[in-house]
Write the structure tokens for this entry.
Amino acid sequence: MAAHGAHPPGFAHQFETVEQQREAGTLGMWTFLVTEILFFGGMFTSYIIYRSLHLHSFIQGSHELIVRYGATNTAVLIFSSLTMALAIRTAQTGKSKGQIIFWLLLTMILGATFIAIKLRFEWYRDYVEGLIPGVSWLDGGTHTPGVKMFMCFYFFMTGLHALHMVVGLGILTVLVIMTARNRFSAEYYAPLEISGLYWHFVDIVWIFLFPLLYLIGGRYPGS
Amino acid sequence: MSTATADLHEAPAESGVNYLNASYGIRSWLLTFDHKRIGLLYLASITVMFLVGGVAAVLMRIHLIEPQGALFEPETYNKLFSTHGIIMVFFFLVPSIPATLGNFLIPLMIGARDVAFPKLNLMSWYIFITGAALALYATISGGVDTGWTFYPPYSSHYSATNVTIVALGVFVAGFSSILTGLNFIVTIHKMRAPGMTWFRLPLFIWAMYATSLIFVLGTPVIAITLFLLGLERILHVGIFDPAVGGDPLLFQHLFWFYSHPAVYIMILPGMGVVSELVTAFSRKKIFGYSFVAFSSLSIAVISFIVWGHHMFVTGQSIYAGLVFSVLSFLVAIPSAVKVFNWTATLYRGSISYEAPMLYALGFIGLFTIGGLTGLFLASLATDVHLNGTYFIVAHFHYVMVGGAVMAYLGGIHFWWPKISGRMYPDLWARIAAAIIFLGFNLTFFPQFMLGYLGMPRRYAVYPAEFQVLNVLSSAGASILGIGYVIPLVYLIWSMRYGPVAGPNPWKAKGLEWTIPSPPPTENFEEIPIVTEDAYNYPVADAHSYPDAPEVARV
Amino acid sequence: MSEHSEQSGHVGHVVPIGVYVTVFLLLMFGTALTTWVAYIDLGRWNTVAALTIAVCKMLLVVLFFMHVKYATGLTRIVILAGFFWLGIMITLSCSDELTRHWEIVPQGWQMILPFVSRVF
């Protein structure tokens, strides 16, 4: 029978112990991430198939993308994963809420930077150059049907990824508010941990998107 | 007493507070976190969806009385069968047992106070309602004519109907089922009462766990697929578009990666219910508990590697066809294991024929027929002849209606006293079960013959020589429809006027029967400590071993 | 009470800052490496290299940032299941898409058919 002493903040009464709640929350988030693996996985599957069947078009399409923006964005996201991990560690070690918020805000700034680079330097440029299928596509030259297919993948996959980033920024905002309201401590920081798992997952998706979209077939002369 | 007749003679315990009367008013229902109330919210919603899908079916069957079609233009008929399929599959069958009985019973059966994430549970109902509203709006404002399978390029480029809205509705409803599955997985892993080990769980829980695995692993794929289809429809270009090198068959791969396991989402919970009914109404523990438990998991796993059998004749490579055909034969094995074990459970049991048992027995017979006919379809050569015909329609209706819907009704009847605190009139229930059984067979058996003779499915007209069988089928449908309405009437009637049921009117085993009917909001006053196996019926109850009270464990 | 994990669970385990920073630097190095290698002509090994580096980066994030190194067996099974199912989807879809144009050539046992028809 569970002890009915003072329960820590955030304890939910369908559980018997705090430990049970924590384990349930973690298992729940990992299960959700598995659904996300399958969700993105549908597009990765399609990508693998079409790349095998239309390699030349995909390489051509990939060369329309600018590597330095993709690489920079990869670095930005990796940095944001570090700051997120540090935010959780700050809570774990009982530091002040100001410090936790610092790392959370830094993560948010990096996430916003990612989206800003995407929008301003990549998608806006693609819009102007007529590379967005169904929106601003211009036929001719290197803009072959095969390249159009590649660009469909590029926008669908990075678009879905960016959508997940935006949701992540929303989650981080909520976390900042909760931290400011003294909801977390060294004993209870599960929402931070669980949101961190989500954030790192979004980072991992990009870790695969970068080489698969920007670096296919290599970028050496003659590729 | 050795039979499981409803015990109506006990005076009810002083009617205390239970989950139904703990709070009043519409807000207390619409903002509830109680899994039992959420189960009832789902029950009401899916009943509405069932009626909508049923109306479409009735209209189709009336139309098919005449070879040239009695009522509709072909375009309208196309919208009818599409609506019927979409509503019945995504908004009735997939959520049916999991969202109603699963939500209600899982915490009770494992000895928990609620599911792991009650707020997510309520959110999943709202998400379901949103998806259903979108689908209904799309239906009312013009309908969809692509079939429930949404194949491109027709759905992406040529159909002038509300494909995007319906796809959005299904997409949204998919998230409802993902959250339900996630909730169940975490609940079953982390919230079992002390002593409730995995192998003491009721088989309904094993079945729900396996179903939840499919929810979590399969549903995201149809979500992304419909998302991509919607994008292609809006942008007029996409990854299934042959003009840019796309392959419409890729859609089919992604679609069926979910939709085949989805049919096991529909049947596995029903199988779980049947395990509960067969044991309760033969007063005997299940034969081969671990075989039945593992067969649920096997079905969940193997269901994911057979989807290509829906694509044998649509252009799939013959090599893939070979692979999928062989794998499809495999999936029949765990299903057969269950049927064998239920039969062995029945053997020398003390069987009584209350309505839930009638539904369970009906399930075993009809599911077997439906399942066996699946083998004809798994075999490449015969599938070439039978694909796209009424044979397929009959096959899946035998398993989904003769199987899943009957199990659903059996479960609703079995647990009705627990849910409502009242008993329904068993005579009417048995009459309805018999009407449903007869009506069902009259509707769908002729369709096997029609399919074999070559009548295509999804056609608004047919050759005159098929009329007799079609008329028989339509006659059966009207009987089936009456059969479905009768329980609706007496179950609602019983909520007010039915005799009060005690905690355990069936004298069944299981933690849910140890608490009052209806249960209190917190389920258990004290979390129980479990010390016995599931279905631990006294050996003397069954007729099995009259001279040998000690029985070796299976 | 549900079964407890044998350890207190990864949530309770505090990872040293040094580990996080090292992982971060390795990830940055991996990014630089994969970009650099793309500009070198390795033929079809470019793809292999890029994916290998990506998988290594993913493992670093999963094991250290997501604490799976300190997590229970159940967590690991869940993650593996996700990737395994993705593998099923990719493999079996490719089994069709990539074999569509295979020629059906009489070979092996089918070679005996002319002789069989002569016998019977």
Notes: Chain B touches chain A through 46 residues (CB under 8 Å). Chain B has one domain: 33-538. The domain at 33-538 of chain B is CATH 1.20.210.10 (Cytochrome C Oxidase; Chain A). Confidence is low (pLDDT under 50) at residues 1-14, 545-554 of chain B.
